[in-house]
Amino acid sequence: MNRTNRGIRSAQAGLLTNAGLAVIKILTGVVGHSYALIADGVESTTDVFSSLVLWRGLNVAGRSPDEDYPFGYGKAESLSAAVISLLLLGAAVGIAIQAVREIITPHHAPAPFTLAVLVLVVAVKETLFRKVFAVGAEMDSLAVRADAWHHRSDAITSVAAFAGITVALIGGPGWEEADDVAALLASAVILFNGIRLLRPAVQDLMDRAPDQTLLERVADVARAVEGVSATEKILARRVGGKHRVVLHVQADPGLSLREAHDLGGRVRGRIIDEVSSVVDVLVHMEPFER
Description:
Layout: H1 2-31, H2 35-61, H3 75-103, H4 114-139, H5 142-171, H6 178-205, H7 212-223, E1 228-239, E2 242-251, H8 257-274, E3 278-287
Helix pairs in contact: 1-2, 1-4, 2-3, 2-5, 2-6, 3-5, 3-6, 4-5, 5-6, 7-8
């Protein structure tokens, strides 16, 4: 529950910040004739939706297992990460399309005061990225890290807009499109990040095996339990920020059913105690054959 609450608080902070910045950037972009700034504001609105998705996803993922979902609701977190990544891809495509339209349409050069707004935006969004990403790393949450990258992408589009507006102002007449080219380049960066974040979310939904280091750690802990002769097959899948493990343990074939059951229970307990990312272990006992 504490893990869920931390993620929800980061989502709430992001939602409020993004809503305020989106309004400021879009209004400034309209008044200051800067499409890059308007595009930046549009990207911030997708951040609002991503924070809402994260908020809801973490709420669902934090539910306890029940009859309908005996393995829990942890996959809601991976699903949230996938949706947030898709929102990022959608924002990138939308910004790119509108940037091309603006490039081929004559318009006024951006106003100088838009640069001050962009400096403020970059500072706020980069700070928010670092704080949210730290929470996501500590929670080992793909969804929270994906939401953090929405903040970083917003900072990137703001940097691109700053560069484009600066070029347009210094270049003077004929350089008005620099602002729009900057928005187009920023959309490519956002697209790249969206694809990069979508891949691990889909892998979790498809129950891809975790890093080999985790499996080796589980095997080492199991073999250290007195009475365990060897470990065989180890399977694991990620559910939310934790892993569920299936482990085949070999022991003395002369053990009674009760003794084998007790040994399996000790193995399960030791793994959960010593491997923090493991939330449950199903131990299958087998006879050890030399």
